[in-house]
Specification:
This protein is mainly α. It has two domains: about 1-35, no CATH class; about 55-85, no CATH class. The chain contains four helices and no strands. It has helices at about 10-25, 25-50, 60-70, 70-85. It is elongated and about 55 Å long. The mean pLDDT is about 90.
Length: about 90
């Protein structure tokens, strides 16, 4: 009963086991795992931005992540907002 997946690096059998494990979780456990996965993704993206731009500030790293995750328009608004507050 394998569901389609966006990746092709997982065997159908392994995917079936993974889905069975997720289905066995309580809603709270699923939420916890989703939040942890989201944090890991964010942390990996921030690390990649830092690695590719070693001379930029932490603020700039966060703004570049914001642009990647939520779009250039929001990042520009946040940059402007921070600038107006002297940050």
């Amino acid at each position: 009963m394998t569901s389609p997946t966006a990746t092709n690096d997982t065997s159908p059998e392994a995917l079936d086991v993974q889905l069975a494990c997720f289905r066995a979780l309580s809603p709270q456990e699923r939420l916890h795992k989703m939040a942890a996965s989201s944090r890991r993704g964010r942390d990996l993206a921030l690390a990649a931005i830092r690695r590719h731009n070693p001379d930029i500030s932490d603020r700039e790293v966060r703004l570049r992540y914001l642009a990647l995750a939520y779009g250039n328009e929001l990042a520009a608004e946040v940059r402007e907002w921070l600038g107006a507050r002297g940050r």
